[in-house]
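Q: I'm building a small set of examples for a reading group on sequence design. Run inverse folding on the following structure and report the sequence directly after it, with nothing in between.
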């Protein structure tokens, strides 16, 4: 009996952390818990399929889920405590992506019909939930507008820099051609042969293979190497310095904080970005990080952060 009470208490605390349930009274949270059905999904089992009706929302309690894009490419990882499909409960849109279990996962499932019935009969709860939805959507609009503005500014600046570089290259090619008595085309061929693979290199440090695979897939345009913890990362960095390090915080043997501090002593010019699903952005202050991204990672935010890190380093 005591075990059941402790379990229910833990689940109540979990529900309170869900954004759409923020600010609900203990009584209301208890009623929502009464709607929840516990389910377990095995590894690679589909939780919800793209194009299906949004008749349920899922709350991840333990394990790990993956948001799958086209060709079954994992575009985001979901860790406890994360919700899936909560907005679809209200806008009734078809599911925009499939979600599957990366490893065995336990979830709470809330069906739309009983949830809507509860809201209809609980005016105070309904008002608070709708207020939370408005706040979530407003925040998303602000963030999306900010990212769009930053992307546009970055694109304009990049185009200017590219024009300058092209002009400089043309001048250098003509100078070399005159000096060596060959054509400009021959100079360009020689330069391309010498340049080889000049992709920027990134070392991703995370003890989860799924996260490292996600980074490799998203950053296919870069030369991505990987390490399972901070100690492996230091060995790799000492052998061949990367242009950027992306490190998880919570790892065995040497965590992300210790790795960042060690890099500050040995390689202060190597930028390092922090990833975590357990801490907030302000907790990385005082360490050697130039940026922070919360897990689960969104595809657009992740790419923007990496591109911004390189632009920041290039201009510093």
């Amino acid at each position: 009996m005591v075990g059941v009470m402790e379990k229910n208490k833990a689940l109540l605390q979990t529900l309170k952390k869900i954004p759409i349930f923020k600010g609900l009274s203990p009584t209301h949270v208890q009623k929502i818990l009464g709607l929840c059905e516990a389910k377990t999904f095995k590894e690679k089992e589909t939780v919800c399929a793209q194009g299906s009706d949004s008749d349920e929302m899922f709350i991840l309690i333990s394990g790990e889920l993956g948001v799958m894009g086209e060709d079954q490419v994992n575009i985001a990882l979901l860790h406890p405590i994360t919700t899936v499909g909560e907005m679809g409960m209200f806008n009734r849109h078809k599911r925009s992506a499939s979600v599957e279990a990366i490893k065995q996962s336990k979830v709470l499932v809330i069906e739309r019909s009983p949830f809507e019935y509860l809201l209809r009969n609980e005016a105070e709860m309904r008002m608070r939930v709708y207020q939370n939805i408005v706040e979530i959507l407003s925040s998303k609009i602000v963030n999306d507008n900010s990212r769009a503005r930053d992307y546009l500014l970055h694109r304009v600046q990049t185009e200017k820099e590219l024009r300058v570089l092209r002009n400089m290259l043309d001048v250098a090619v003509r100078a070399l051609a005159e000096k060596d008595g060959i054509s400009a085309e021959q100079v360009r061929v020689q330069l391309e042969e010498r340049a080889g693979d000049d992709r920027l290199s990134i070392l991703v440090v995370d003890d989860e293979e799924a996260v490292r695979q996600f980074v490799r897939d998203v950053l296919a345009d870069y030369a991505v190497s990987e390490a399972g913890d901070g100690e492996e990362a230091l060995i790799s960095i000492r052998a061949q310095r990367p242009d950027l390090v992306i490190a998880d915080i919570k790892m065995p043997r040497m965590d992300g904080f210790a790795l960042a501090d060690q890099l500050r002593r040995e390689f202060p010019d190597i930028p390092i970005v922090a990833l975590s699903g357990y801490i907030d952005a302000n907790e990385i202050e005082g360490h050697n990080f130039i940026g922070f991204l919360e897990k689960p990672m969104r595809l657009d935010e992740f790419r923007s952060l990496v591109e911004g890190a390189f632009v920041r380093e290039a201009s510093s």
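The CA atoms of residues 45 and 100 lie 6 Å apart.
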